[in-house]
Prior knowledge:
About 30% of the residues lie in helices and about 15% in strands. It is an alpha+beta fold. It folds into three domains: about 1-30; about 30-70, no CATH class; about 95-155, CATH 2.40.50.40. This is Chromo domain-containing protein. It comes from Austropuccinia psidii MF-1.
Amino acid sequence: MWNRDSDTAARCIAEAKAYNKQRWNKSHMEPDFKEGDQVENAVEVKLTEEFSRKHPVFPVSLVKPYFQTEEDKFPSRKRNPTSPEIVEVEDSPGPMRKIIKARKIRLNGKDQRKYLVRFKNQTADKDKWLAEDAIPDGNIHLRRFRASSRAENFIN
């Protein structure tokens, strides 16, 4: 009985090896470069500290040939620096009365807090969402807003 089980196990292992070999050969492609060719993309990479626990060596089949960019081909060529876009900032409709609400939104992959601001002698339809640094006398108004929101949370 022991021999029959070991024979079955050996046969299953041999079939699995043959199946895996067939699948590998079907999808595997040899790299386009040969030993001794200059390849600027190394197989062993230097990882940043956050990835330091990852294995830095990758299979050669994942390495792709390096193509130089325009800056690499012509290092003496100067690129004209692009000028930043000038964005016109609207003037506020008047002096600020109070901050009504706060919300957190994601801009360019970073969380940013915006505040709904009500202006003096203006109706609610003129309220604007402004960033903290765009609020005139922001420190004073933000301190009042945070104190009032803490008081509301404490009462409820």
